């Protein structure tokens, strides 16, 4: 799934808390539901959204469905954040270089003082 699908899935606070729970340990759907004040079908819906976004995986163990965090989904988040960090670091480096050039050449506009409330 795409990175934005991951963010859409995590936009819901219940789903974020489910990921946090599953990051600590594998749980059955019923065990996940015990942590929330919503119905089991609602928790199942949240788990499905998280699975479809690639954040959670499910394995079948006899009649049980065991849920855990899918590290690949978290990698998608990390990749997106790294891309954003590189972009903004480049932009801020350019701004810093421009300010340094302007300071060195004296081309900065005069600083306006805000009127005091005195």
Tell me about this structure.
It is a single chain. With 118 residues, the protein is mainly α. Helix content is 62%, strand content 12%. The chain is built from five helices and three strands, in the order H-H-E-H-H-E-E-H. It has helices at residues 3-10, 13-24, 29-33, 40-52, 71-105; strands spanning 27-28, 56-61, 64-69. Strands 1-3-2 form a three-stranded antiparallel β-sheet. Helix 2 (13-24) packs across helix 4 (40-52). The longest helix is centred in the last third of the chain and has 35 residues, at 71-105. The N and C termini lie far apart (58 Å).
Sequence-ordered SSE layout with sheet pairings:
Layout: H1 3-10, H2 13-24, E1 27-28, H3 29-33, H4 40-52, E2 56-61, E3 64-69, H5 71-105
Antiparallel strand pairs: 1-3, 2-3
Helix pairs in contact: 2-4
Relevant terms:
single chain, 118 residues, mainly alpha, 3-stranded antiparallel β-sheet, 5 helices, 62% helix
Strands, total number: 3
Radius of gyration: 24 Å
Unreliable spans: none
Q: Which percent range describes the beta-strand content?
A: 5-15%
Roughly what percent helix? 55-70%
Structural class: mainly alpha
What's this model, at a glance?
This protein has about 120 residues and is mostly helical. It has helices at about 5-10, 15-25, 30-35, 40-50, 70-105, and strands spanning about 25-30, 55-60, 65-70.
